[in-house]
Amino acid sequence: MPSDGAEYTIGGVKILFPCKAYPSQLAMMNAIVKGLNNRQHCLLESPTGSGKSLALLCSALSWQKALYEKSVPASSCDKEDRKAEPSPPCHCKCHCQPKSNEASASGTHSAPCSANCPDTGTSRKPGSPLTNTECKENETLASKLSAKKKLSLHASENDDFQVDRKRIRPLETEQQVRKRQCFAKGVQLVDALEVYHQRKNGELTVHSEKSMKTATFSPQTPPDPCTECSCSSGKEPDKKKKENGDRLCVPKIFFGTRTHKQITQISRELKRTAYSCVPMTILSSRDYTCIHPVVSNSSNRNEMCVELLEGKHGKSCSYYHGVHKLSEQHALQPPPGLCQAWDIEDLVSLGRKLRACPYFAARELMVGADIVFCPYNYLLDPQIRDSMDINLKDQVVILDEAHNIEDCARESVSYGVTERQLRAAREELDFMVNNNIRQKHHEPLRAVCCSLINWLQESSGQLVERAYETACKVWSGKEMLNFLYQMGITGITFPILQKHLVAVLEKEEKVSMHGREELIEVPVVSPAAQIVLKGLFMVLACLFKENSRFADDYRVALQQTYTWMTEDQRDDSDTSSFFTRPKHKKSSRQKTLVHMLNFWCLNPAVAFSDLNEVRTIVLTSGTLSPMDSFSSELGVKFSIQLEANHVIRNSQVWVGTVGAGPSGRKLCATFQHAETFEFQDEVGALLLSVCQTLGQGILCFLPSYKVRKSELLFFPSNHTPLKMHC
């Protein structure tokens, strides 16, 4: 902390501040600590430039640190070690015996009774206590990743493709490539994937029209469950429990901002504090973190990334396989590693150097992070939360610059799908059902798509023309529930449909072979079809939630428009994960009718209803008033509300109008005068005069980029710093 830093004790929490705090910052920190201690939500308004971000970071991280100190005895490890007490040495067979590569990759224990420490390489006797240094390394995410990777990496120096089997599918074998090519030629999946159906004497037989080949599994006997320690339940012992009762569970802090760019500003503020070395991570999209030379230059990074990870075309992503290298570098190494608060650009730069994927490394680091930064739609959107494995139960959520949080919340629980996308999803589900692949799960989902398509066709006759080549019809949420009821989708049947969806998305399935259970890979629908199904089920879950409490908050709109499509675009939309239809190399464009089904959410409280199990929500901005209406729209009770004053005193503010410039010309900014050189010269001379008088940085707002360009041409570049905004 800088020498001019200050220390404050608020609500029993010692807060280290990098400078003397403004009164508004003290008021904010007091409100935040009070809310965190009492599990209350906070709505805090403080003007722009009053240091909100610094107050948020210091108060929240100080409170978290104090909670760590309460949850671990002072005689144990340092603060870094207080996150979890080291469990007593385990002497069971499953931990003391050497592990195979598969066991090492899938195990959840750090093998405390092995002869060598997996991270340091130093020898110690079995059962001997860990030192502070060893404890620190064993508690980091990197050490866990290192322990899991050690045995699989030592056999080859080129470890890009030596991956954990539970995280990455193996690359396609030559036989799998041939099977995939069969699908492209129209061979039915039931003929090419007998691997899923025929199980005889431990062998899976694959038939095709021209040849017959056999692929034999060599099942391994799973180890007997351990009966000598807590691992017999299949889970790690809870390291945050006292011997005589429940221990304080230290929550993570999820810090949401409006954009990725604002995360850069927050990380810069974090570097100024005494908490700059706190374990952290930044969740962001592939648009900002993908470093694959092909995928990063693609317009559809998400789908290309998924295809590489699944190895559909016999290729994989070496950057993803090197995630552990970036995690270890981040957690264990001094500079040029990221030992202090870092930014997305720092992570990407290090990822390029180590040839490791920053996108998945950031997600891995979330496991051991105390504070997680992300755009706040990552926290509000149910689908993003699910894909990122974000669990907000009993956690702390801070949303900075939350003045437009209502719009983000409404968009996160709204969804739109075209009739073409529905038909493509139905075709893939047809393919699964006809080839007897998880038929009992795919068939109900196909029925949902068929019902929606039939309803779209019937309702298209009711559309009302609204504009040129545009027609629309809008129903209320309750009217849509009646239509869904006629389709057989009700509050009783929908949970069953959700279970079917979960089942069809599982890429592996347990089968019995020789009395043992083995995992085999099962085909699933394409990523595009998964997006359609997940989006539909997300919005249907909102409609049926809490006995259709939010049905009136939705409007369902069927829109009809026309768009120009090329032939290859029309064909691309109909592709699936199993067969590829030939593309027509036609450059002609055709006018195509498009039906779009939209589920519009009008109430942001729908999204915030998913956050009812969050410990504390802190919303801050410079413009939140009126507080009562803002709180009622979100449907959240903010017990602590604050409207802080600005750090600038009234005596420092002058508000007035300037009617003439230095030469006496009137400043009339109407359209006729704003285009003249006389007006522009007079405004430029006025700005120059102000800069010469004040001698400090100046912020100037102009009505348009055109006016801004004119003034910048006039203003000398070697003068007082001047920042212009439109």
TrEMBL record:
Single GO term (MF): DNA binding
Helicase ATP-binding domain span: 11-449
Keywords, in A-Z order: ATP-binding, Hydrolase, Nucleotide-binding
GO biological process, one term: nucleotide-excision repair
Organism of provenance: Chloebia gouldiae (Gouldian finch)
One Pfam family it belongs to: DEAD_2
InterPro entries documented for this protein: DinG/Rad3-like, Helic_SF1/SF2_ATP-bd_DinG/Rad3, Helicase-like_DEXD_c2, P-loop_NTPase, RAD3-like_helicase_DEAD
Compositionally biased region (Polar residues): 114-133
Residue span of region Disordered: 114-135
Top-level taxon of the source organism: Eukaryota
Record-level GO cellular component terms: nucleus
The name this protein goes by in its record: Helicase ATP-binding domain-containing protein
Gene3D superfamilies associated with the record: P-loop containing nucleotide triphosphate hydrolases (3.40.50.300)
PANTHER family hit by this protein: DNA REPAIR DEAD HELICASE RAD3/XP-D SUBFAMILY MEMBER, FANCONI ANEMIA GROUP J PROTEIN
